[in-house]
Protein 1
Amino acid sequence: MHTHRRRDDEYEQFNDETSPSDQGTEMEFRKRKQMSEKGLAIGSLLVGFGVGVGLAILFAPQSGEETREWLSANAEDQYYRIRRRGRRLVFETQDLIDRGEQQVNRVLRSGRNMLDSVASKLE
């Protein structure tokens, strides 16, 4: 057994080259390091956002009730604006579809007329 250990030690001593699996491990380590740095940045951003919101609430010039009413009114206004824009978009889309349908009908009519005229000339 003693000689077996000695051979392993000698093999490791003469095998200084890094194997491909070692390089893969190094690349994985670098990727994990980059991902952990991104995670740290995102975590820091979220903590900063939380602190900012907390300070804004603490030093707000209005009471909590007034702030809630203001937020509710603004949210309701935005809801109605978005709803109006959505309706307008639906009407504009319907108008475009109607115009497109009319143009297609015109093209089909003119194509049918041309075919009829060609057919009458061939007879």
Protein 2
Amino acid sequence: MSLTVIYNFNTKPGLRDQVIQAFNIVKGAAGLNSLELYKDKENADKLVCVENWASEKHHDTFIGSFTPEQAATAESMFTEKPQPGIYSMAV
């Protein structure tokens, strides 16, 4: 069953473009069906990422592939640690 993950987050000032580039790495992940990244019309540092994965296992495998140091580096680019909303098809 496919899985949709939605992140809402704010990048630290001056890091938005670096964060956007980092999401290009995600696009090559095994089991990732699609990734859409949106910026707020009024605050370009506020982003929303919508990922669709082939399965929860694919998503978990991708997230688990990061070392604690890599995860900490990524999290340091945001004003707060992004908390994902995880969804499956309702119909």
